[in-house]
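Comment thread on ticket #2218

A.B. wrote:
> Attaching the input chain for the structure job we discussed in standup.
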Amino acid sequence: MTDLNPNAAAYAGKVRVRVCGVCLQENKLLLVQHDHTLNNNAFWAPPGGGVAFGETMQQALAREMQEETGLEVKVGRFLFVNEFVQPPLHAVEFFFEVSCSNGQATTGTDPEAAPNQQLIKQVQWLTIKELQAIPTADKHRALQHLFSLDDLMGLPHHFMR
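C.D. wrote:
> Ran it. Output below, let me know if you need it in another format.
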């Protein structure tokens, strides 16, 4: 039995298409820390979220980056896809390289969640050493075994759990 955060229950029991942005700047990676979702204390992942009906992946990623981090971004090349299956959650995630075009990183919000039910705890630029210090269970699968931040740009194009 998994310990699903009640605030993540809206995403349970269905397949979700997500987009995520890999944003590197000054040897740091932009990450969002979420409140615990499944059997973890907190969860660090690249910013991103669900693709809405009729929205392109690039449009969704630009919107999600703005909502979660306050940054306007230019969406670059496709990097890889990750399939996450850990009932009751199931997501297919498309990762893209992004670059900041305007704004400063701030902790944003999830407009689908009520103010007292936000999953986003903080937004932070982390070095590889800071990222490696985070417990494995508390970070996205794509971040778990990196030797350098540049490794994200050359990961196999498909992960599956």
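A.B. wrote:
> Thanks. Noting for the ticket: DSSP finds two helices and nine strands in the chain.
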